[in-house]
Amino acid sequence: MRVFLTGATGFIGSHVIPELIDAGHHVVGLTRSDAGARKLEAAGVEVHRGTLEDPASVAAGAETADAVVHAAFDHDFNNFIANCEKDRRVIEAIGDVLAGSDRPFLITSGVGLGSSGPGQLATEDVMNRNYANPRRVSEVTGEAVAQRGVSVAAVRLPQVHDPVKQGLITWAIDIARDKGVSAYVGDGTNRFAAAHVSDVARLYRLALDHHRAGARWHAVAEEGVAMRDVAEAVGAGLGVPVKSLTPDEAMAHFGWFGAFVGMDMSASSALTRERLGWNPTGPGLIADLHAMDYGLAAAA
């Protein structure tokens, strides 16, 4: 298939590319820059120019595609709500192009939408439209687009990691470095689901090759890693003390990340594994945090 991939130069998208190419697909990758174009060409990817700020430029890449994998998202959390709205506009624009066809459209969401309430393990068969995280708009928009005759499925992400990046944990590391303390909230037993980026990339490919309209796939290798364990691994890596904070202290300490750090975002991937035959094999989150070069991260 001719697959249009947004986020092609990003952390996850750059790992999805070889999965798709090795499976025999022709990949068309979205980029906004000359540097990104050179990177894609070197990977054997056809270049499509566009930006998330211009949804029509993104949607144009879908016009000649047999399938679309939308992995792009603006991770500037200082403008998180605005960026979620930007994602809504992009999904709607791509949906306009694909409407009335059976071409697969994979969107990206978060595992939290599968939780029926605070502390409840998120599952693929739950869609919590009242979930507090504004990122819910991506999946809600996907549902609306599906009503217009688009074959939509969602890949829900946990904390995606390798020894360089770890999803939201990346910001926790930066804060620990700046503040000189690696902190968690309360007893630190709240958990974040996680998966290695190589396993996540393989799931995108499986979800495309075995596309099911309306499916929700959980890219979860570890159901939940306790935040205290994360804080201790980061503290050891940075050589800083580890400390428990109250919820009020956490908001002052972590800034915008304070809204996330005390949440329980555990999730199951049982249905995904059963239906797609996906079996994660990559290192765990704590192993990657121990393997991280914290000096290199500081210089990056």
Structure characterization notes:
This protein has 300 residues and is α/β, with parallel strands linked by helices. 41% of the residues lie in helices and 19% in strands. The chain has 13 helices and twelve strands. The chain has a seven-stranded parallel beta sheet, sandwiched between helices. Strands 7-9-11 form a three-stranded mixed beta sheet. α2 links the parallel β2 and β3. α1 packs across α7 and α8 packs parallel to α12. The longest helix has 19 residues. It is globular and about 55 Å long. The two termini are 37 Å apart.
Kindly summarize this structure in a few lines.
This protein is an alpha/beta fold and 300 residues long. It contains 13 helices and 12 strands.
> Any low-confidence stretches, pLDDT <50, length ≥5?
none
Could you report the average pLDDT, rounded to the nearest whole number? 95
Structural classification? alpha/beta
Largest sheet: 7 strands, parallel
Radius of gyration over all CA atoms, rounded? 19 Å
Number of strands: 12
Q: Within the largest sheet, what's the order of strands?
A: 3-2-1-4-5-6-10
Which series of helices and strands comes N to C? Answer: EHEHEHEHEHEEHEEHEEHEHHHHH
Q: What portion of the residues fall into strands of 2 or more residues? A: 15-25%
Count the helices. How many? 13
